[in-house]
Amino acid sequence: MGVIGRISTYYLFASSVFAVSIAKAQVKPHMLTVASIEEMQAVADSTVGIFITDKDRGGFFRYSTTDKYNNGTEFNAAGIGAGVWQRIYPNQDGLNVKWFGAKGDGVTNDATALQAGIQAAATARVPLVFPAGIYYLTENTVISLPSSAHLKGAGKKATVIQTSRGFSHDFPALVNVTGDNVTIQDMGFNGGRPRGDKDMSMAVAGRYALMNITFDAKPAKDILIERCSFADAFGRGILYKASQVVIRDCDFKRIGRYNIDFAAVDGAITNFGRLECSDVLIERNHFEYVGTHCISSYKVEGLKIRDNYLDHISGIGMANQQCSDVDVSGNNLNHTGDNGMDFQRCERIVINNNSFNNAGDKNAGNAGSAAAIFVGDDYGLAASSSTIISNNFVTGTYTPRSKTTSGSFQNCGFYIIDANHVKVTNNIIRYIGALPADKDAPVVLEDGNGIMVVNTQKGAGTDIVIEGNTLSNMKCNGIYVNGQSRELKIKNNYIDKFGLHGLLMCAIGTNLFSQVEGNTIVDGTNFYNRAVAADIYVEAQNAWITNFNISRNQLRNDSRGSYSSRNDTVFTTHGIYFSAKGFGKFNNLLVTDNQVNGHLVDEIGFSDNISEYSVTNENYFPLVSFKNNFSGSTDDQPDIIIPGLNQRNKPKVITESYGQQPPVYGNYSAGSVIRNISPQNDVYGWVAANSGFAAGSRWKGGIGYAAGQTVYINEDVYRCTVAGVSGKDGPVKKEEGLIADGGIKWEYMGNRVYFKKVLLRDLR
Q: Is-cis flag, bond preceding 141, omega within 30?
């Protein structure tokens, strides 16, 4: 209600006041009406009440003997020669900024009037009301909010404090908060930057910051900012050093240097570099076109970031360093250039029910991992601890069938580095990776992974659980693990349509006590056309991998031609694959009870250098068990999987299988057992007497052979790779490459394995 609209209310209030005071003095009261403050000041009679008709500064006044005046609620009584004319108003309604001479016309410099009103209202501990209008400040002015200041506007778009397009180094902020118990409601702040929504900022256009809360002073306490808007600052929106801070239901737009480099840490809300901050709540705010980092938090104890909407952030959506007791939930992040959320060396973090859409598309250039959620330490200084990441939804735009490029994508799902006690559960991550369809492009391990777990030489990850997640359509790997991990559990995840490996575990140090159990991994796309693209790929890289359990996983790659809507041709080469680079050993390895089917080469396979670095002088693969692993689709008879069946070289893995005769194909280690499923003549089964490859028959010239058939010549075994009719002399042993023989091409498979018959009576 404006001044004129409240005349009747003021009149009744003023009349009662005058009636009491005049009754005591037994003097007949009378009222004087004037048009302006100046006319009132000229009145010489202290016994009259005065009503001023000015629409902005008018109201009821009475004389007071006090000698303090502020030109808003008290004015110098020049006509009397002493005292003031004192405004009469309902205290609960607060003060009106226009009483102090503010115009709100967008042209007049209102700095002096605003400051006078702010000080008067704070002293009286009442709100300062801003009617609708644009309150203009020049570039060399700033307003300060002392303790108990309370600014209340007519709406975030209706009431705006607007600065000029000029810039002064002496006045970087538009508003300085210098005290405690400050409330700002229903108004806007504009930094004067003359740029469009998507344009880069100018470093000398308008204000650097819109609001600065107790910089280089003791932390403020009890700050409430709600239903406000902050726009067009070339650096930052709100900088704070405070505790008990609430920022809610506000809009932040065009804050910071969007879509350029990360030279300066700009952003909408930040306390970076300011200590002693605690109990901070940032909720239900809307952020759009912010650079570099939207919400930045540094060593905050008790941080809650809830239900915010972020769109087009050129850096990190939410950057948090060394914070504790953090709750980040219900937020929606779209198009961030770097990580959507970043938690560096934080403790006790809950991240749940957030939604990410292309939050990590590197819109400002090379931004590293550019993950939806980053947790840990990117600098090798210290580990992060105690984090729960659950029920989040992450999506990008990648699809392996796309032939187009796009500037928007989700580069990585979750990135966990040097972190301890982390639980990643029940998240949905899909369409991850950049879009260029160049299959010959080099693999960048930070591009296109659903979940990454990395441990550097300076840190170690302990007790990490990745469970119950759904990952679909990743350009590179579903889950990627690299480094020194202990107590790593990857359980009950669903991984579908990945470009390289469903699960890649690469140890550059000792990888201890890990479990991969109950996962379903299907339909890899082998986007990079690799010779090995596996559902589960395990690599020792100058490392021991020990106490490692891979069990109860379902790894399927069936073409299912009748299910045409899937259009899922098989590209994945192996179900489970073990590799080594440099020095590599596997020990205490259990691979049991897995169902693996439909892969191009082997259901379980090994690189050639496993045997070179893990087994020497006919020693068996140290303390491993490959047991009860089966292949076969719903239409096929299940078979026991022989690890490395189609390989020429493999570790000395002892296997057990079933058959009606000694094998005529496959790589077997000495001691492997084939049990007779139809015992006759007292035959229990057959045992491999040595390590080698099985052959069906002796080579003969002039015979037609089909691809896949094996033959032996003396102690050497060959496998037919190109069908045809054999020549006269037979293949000659060659370690590498194919061997021509008539119209056939053979591959040398190694020494011939011999099977010893075991009778039932031998077992009695």
A: no
